[in-house]
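Request:
Um, any thoughts?
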Amino acid sequence: MQSGRRLFLKNAALILPAVTFMPSSLLKAASSKRLRIGFIGTGTWGRQYLEAALSNRQLDISAICETSDTARRDALKLFNAAGYTKPALYDDYHQLLSNPALDAVIIATPADQHYAIAAAALRQGKHVACGPIMGSTLEEHRHIVQLSRQTGKHYFTLDEHSYRPDLLAMTAMVKDGRFGQLESIYAGACSINIPQQENGYPLYPMALMENLLRLSDANKYTALRIEKNTEEYVVKVKNPKSGKTYSSIRQGEITTICLSTTTGQQVRLQAEAGHSTGFRIKGTTGSWVDYTGSIYLQNNAHPQNVWESAAPHLRQYAVATTGATSLALSGFINIIQNKSHHLPVYAAATNSVITVLAAKSARLGGASLAFPDFTTAS
């Protein structure tokens, strides 16, 4: 029987070689210099990262920019709870960005503001960490990539969804060859955390998917299209008597974003919020579905197609974590402190532009579109 530490190290080793978003504590000794960070936006999502940042000894959170009095008060409560010095307060992000004492900013504003703020931050010589949406047009994405190249400052996507414990375990299984050659991934909202808001956008664990697909110069997204099919999905239903919420499997027409890679892998992304089509992995020798909690692994002793509970495998390949938000934040710190020559802006632009291309494909009746390569000069 393997010890817990030995099993953790084995599972971490299965994931780490191809991953740039794991915490620096697992990759390299942290730099003694604390990174000086400013927060632009301290709403619900911003405070989630602010709380994690305030407990990270590699960071010094010295400024926040927020126009809402309520959000600002809630943010300052986190500083007080952490025993932190009160930060410099701004209501204009341009003023915060002009502060020469800051090394980087975390942008946690509404998505339609990301591009303008990120562009201004890069011009001011700040590293940028942001939510999954970089811009609203292909041109805006190309511009952010260009600015990151020109300034030498990193643009990083904070993607806590890539650190779900079950997805990390399945990534370790893929790396261990348990699914054979990976053929397809189907990503929807997490079935245990289906978005309540109907006007939101679905979020995918894109950094983790990049790792699963082994995207590289030799294997990139090549095409995208929108299609509609009748499929199963999960919704949250409230019991009128007990008031408790439970998951219910339904069937209906689902809009899906379909991506192809150089090596022929297929990626299907849920295009609507408010329900979940689940996360599924399919390889030549196995498959997994998150919302049913089931897995199929080809076994020479039992060649028949038998699905079983995934729970034992999730335990076997579990990777100890400090929490999804903290891990995503550590990925940003690692990129900066280790002076990586890898530009995370390429992956950030690739993952963000999917929504832009999907909207265009939908306008064109589901036409297949060539996927842009951000690593080449535009």
Remarks:
- The longest strand covers residues 221-238.
- Confidence is low (pLDDT under 50) at residues 1-31, 191-199.
- Residues 190 and 278 are 6 Å apart (CA to CA).
